[in-house]
What we know:
Chain A is mainly alpha-helical and 391 residues long. Chain A has helices spanning 9-36, 38-68, 75-86, 88-94, 96-100, 102-105, 116-121, 127-158, 162-189, 202-227, 237-268, 271-279, 285-304, 307-311, 313-335, 348-371, 382-386. The longest helix of chain A has 32 residues, at 127-158.
Amino acid sequence: MAEKFRLEEQMVQRMRTPLVWSAVVGWIGCFIGYVIDAKQFHFSYLVSIIYFLSICLGALFFVMIQYVCTAGWSVVVRRIAETVMRNIDVCAVLFIPVLIGIPHLYHWVHPEPNDIILQKKAGYLNIKFFVARAVVYFGIWVLISRAIYKHSIAQDEDGKAEHNRRSMKWSAPGILLLFLSGSLAAFDWLMSLDPHWYSTIFGVYFFSGSAVAFVALLILFSMYLRKRGVLSKEITHEHYHDLGKLLFAFTVFWAYIAFSQYFLIWYANLPEETGWYLHRQEGSWLWVSLLIVFGHFLFPFLALISRIAKRNLKFLSFMAMWMMVMHYVDIYWIVMPTLSHHGVHVHWLDVAALLAVMGTLGVVFVSRLGKNAIVPIKDPFLSESLHFENV
Amino acid sequence: MGEIYGALAMFDTPEQIVEAARRVRERGYVRFDCHTPFPVHGLEAAMGLTRSKLPFLVLGGGAMGVLAAILLQWWTGAVDYPLLIGGKPYFAMEFATPVTFELMVLFSAFTSVFGMLALNGLPMLYHPLFNAEIFARVTDDKFFISIEAIDPRFDRGHTVEFLRSLGASEVVLVEE
């Protein structure tokens, strides 16, 4: 049983090679870019690391929800999710360039002398406290994800149900901690790019997009394995149908939050709040804003609403790919108007940073996935998951 | 004996009723139903039930809700009685969205509840099957198949004989 659910070494190699190339090319590009244009590098890199970190946080959220609900259906895909979640520790290391780039990225480091608002915020928005908070956030996430991962791997050996109970005990407070710390992290790393602007719902906005992107990745990676004959009988149409439902649900939830944020600012029409959206209507940013409204909500909402669409694996894979791209556009749209005010300026460093972070995380992900069984083979709910059917 | 509603067969186990339902369907009966004390896994497939039309009705209901909400807000606010409030436009999707969303949910909910009742014929104040004394055990520990007399393949003698051959512990004819 254990051997059957382990990735073959050859397959791990085949997945690893392009990722290694992606990392090598990406990091060389990043290094050259950093020398030429440090400011551009830091912004491109911030988009990239936040994009992949958000997916890992989405995985952590997904796994904890499964434990808290004692979900049976999802056990066959849970190890993949756990391995994505475990990569938060790599994200922590990859986050160092952001901390180095604080003076390039964040306006609050050097405010104008007569800027009273930023003077009042200086107690919170200063480099020392910013770094300390980042350490605490990552500390919380790494602690929880390592603990849950360790229990899941240990269960592959001894098969004790006690591990599920322990993971559940981590997950319940974990969800609360994740949302508090993640919300503050979104305030720190994304919202403070425009330090005069504030939106209390911003953290939820960030999280809802992360959940969409992670479920999309889970669908895509399962389909990738399926194409190569791995878990093709275990992850059935029923599981894809349910993942499709989650993809749809989180997309709608994202839209609900995104609209709630926009709606209140539109209605109140206060100058200190509207600026953020006005920036994003300048020049070609307007088209990106519209792309997000239609591409991140209206199109997937109509496309994924039917049961037939969610059970058609080709179509579902396309939609998952689409949502992953849209999540990148979303993060890009949050970060980049701070750098290029009057319109979109796609830079080659955007691609280099994407390749660097993707390659690095991917290599670690694949080798971790290869080291252990690809499903939690002795989870007491595995049998329920294998025979799961939608009514 | 009055008009016959149909034949009612009693089975002892869930496995038996799934198998019996499959055989009844394969025989070509279309006006038949199964009655069980609890949901039996795989019974819908054995009976050959198709998926409900209800989702499409709900989609239509939701679309009607969207349309109604937009028309209501646009016509009252921008056409019939334009009133400037807080310097906002007479009509804009920004402020119309919450009401539109709520009416979509409301109309969808109404369509799903009343559509469900319309499709399954509830509430039903009288059903001939309750004339059969053995049918009382459907809420306890027995599983039943009823075949209606209006089914084109229904024939008193043959149908009762056929149901017995499926392993029914008792078969009765039910009066209208």
